[in-house]
Task: inverse folding
């Protein structure tokens, strides 16, 4: 089921997928060598910078992952309040969606593994 969808610019080329209360530091992340940096309750995802154009992001929950895009990341996020927030550091975009579990499996698919402009985020209850 599609939870949310947005097409917008990301001024710094950074999208954050996290628990709203996350305080995970992402020290040591080198965006030039890693597109995704994972911590227990947050992900930093490098995306196309605003100067290069818009980025389309769609978030799905409890749906079989049948994306035509390439798998960029798979892992688990701790979500203490059973919500996930998708945003950029300037809060040009900030979406909060409720989920059913406090631990969610996450898969991110993208059209490019360097500066994606089309991303799909799949969330499903961790087993």
Result:
């Amino acid at each position: 089921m599609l939870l949310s969808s947005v097409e917008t610019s990301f001024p710094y080329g950074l999208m954050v997928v996290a628990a709203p209360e996350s305080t995970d530091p992402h020290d040591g992340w080198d965006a030039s060598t890693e597109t995704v940096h994972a911590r227990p309750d947050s992900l930093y995802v490098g995306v196309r910078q605003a100067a290069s154009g818009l980025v389309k992001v769609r978030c799905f929950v409890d749906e079989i992952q049948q994306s035509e895009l390439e798998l960029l990341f798979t892992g688990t996020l701790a979500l203490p309040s059973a919500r996930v927030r998708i945003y950029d550091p300037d809060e040009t975009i900030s979406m909060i969606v409720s989920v059913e579990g406090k631990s969610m499996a996450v898969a991110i698919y993208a059209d490019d593994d360097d500066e994606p402009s089309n991303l799909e985020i799949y969330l499903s209850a961790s087993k």
Summary: The two ends are 19 Å apart (CA to CA).
